[in-house]
């Protein structure tokens, strides 16, 4: 069976239409439809059902989808094993948003220059979501916030970058007393459900600060933009950027919480030699 057929089924289920799947796979909708017909003929059952422009998996389709990721992972493992130690093949990388905008462009540029046979698949997400994707084997590696809980021995975490929390305030704020600013200025909270957002909550609790909360967001770039418009102040990691104009970053009183970014991967992955190439190039970027 051509592995592209299963990839197409996964894309159709995820996007809910042939057009959406075609965009994701960078093929035509007709090619999507043709691949599904071939897969259905090969398996012998109908896998998707149309309702107007919406396409949904049938019961049999859901059953096939439940095993598809594992099958594709095994196919990738075989290809990697066949290449031995060559820096070639597919590497599936997850990344939180701030690393995608501030760090990964340079890393991917260097990887493409040095290893032209390395195919990169990049998936955005939250630290919690990407952690689960790596543990399940759906991703080879992910750049995430270091978990605060004890990780299983089956995974390894390679530190990449340390980002102390800072107070982000409008450029016009003349005070330097962080606690006074937080107690008297509208506060834009970094979503406490995010692993990084919990650091801000722990700082507020440690200093017994009850800010006048205005918004709670999970997107750091949106938080910084709102601060630049004078809508409040926020506690965020000193991430790689880019940063909006019109803001300043004030250091927090000691000890300031630190968000640690690193690469999570399975210890026994057959693509760990590719992961090592990624982490080495990323280490150059952080120096």
UniProtKB/TrEMBL annotation:
SUPFAM superfamilies: Periplasmic binding protein-like II, Winged helix' DNA-binding domain. PROSITE patterns: HTH_LYSR. The keyword Amino-acid biosynthesis does not apply. GO terms for cellular component: protein-DNA complex. InterPro entries: LysR_HTH_N, LysR_subst-bd, WH-like_DNA-bd_sf, WH_DNA-bd_sf. Belongs to the LysR transcriptional regulatory family. This is LysR family transcriptional regulator. It comes from the Bacteria. Keywords: DNA-binding, Transcription, Transcription regulation.
């Amino acid at each position: 069976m051509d592995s592209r057929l299963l990839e197409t089924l996964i894309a159709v289920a995820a996007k809910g239409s042939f057009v959406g799947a075609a965009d994701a796979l960078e093929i035509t909708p007709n090619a999507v439809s043709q691949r599904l017909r071939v897969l259905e003929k090969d398996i012998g059952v109908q896998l998707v059902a149309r309702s107007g422009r919406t396409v949904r998996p049938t019961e049999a389709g859901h059953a096939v989808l439940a095993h598809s990721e594992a099958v594709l992972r095994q196919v990738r493992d075989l290809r990697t094993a066949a290449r031995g130690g060559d820096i070639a093949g597919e590497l599936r990388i997850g990344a939180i948003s701030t690393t995608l905008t501030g760090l990964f462009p340079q890393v991917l540029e260097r990887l493409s220059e040095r290893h032209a046979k390395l195919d990169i698949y990049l998936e955005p997400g939250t630290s919690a979501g990407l952690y689960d994707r790596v543990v399940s084997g759906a991703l080879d590696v992910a750049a995430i916030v270091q978990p605060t809980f004890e990780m299983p021995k089956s995974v390894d975490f390679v530190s990449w970058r340390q980002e102390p929390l800072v107070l982000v305030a409008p450029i016009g704020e003349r005070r330097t007393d962080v606690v006074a600013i937080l107690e008297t200025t509208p506060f834009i909270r970094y979503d406490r459900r995010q692993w990084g957002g919990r650091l801000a909550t722990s700082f507020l609790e440690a200093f017994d600060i009850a800010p006048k909360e205005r918004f709670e967001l999970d997107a750091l770039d949106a938080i910084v933009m709102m601060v630049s418009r004078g809508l409040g102040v926020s506690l965020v990691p000193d991430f790689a950027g880019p940063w909006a104009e019109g803001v300043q970053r004030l250091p927090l009183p000691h000890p300031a919480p630190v968000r640690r970014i690193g690469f999570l991967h399975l210890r026994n992955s057959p693509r760990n030699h590719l992961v090592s190439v990624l982490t080495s190039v990323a280490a150059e970027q952080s120096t």
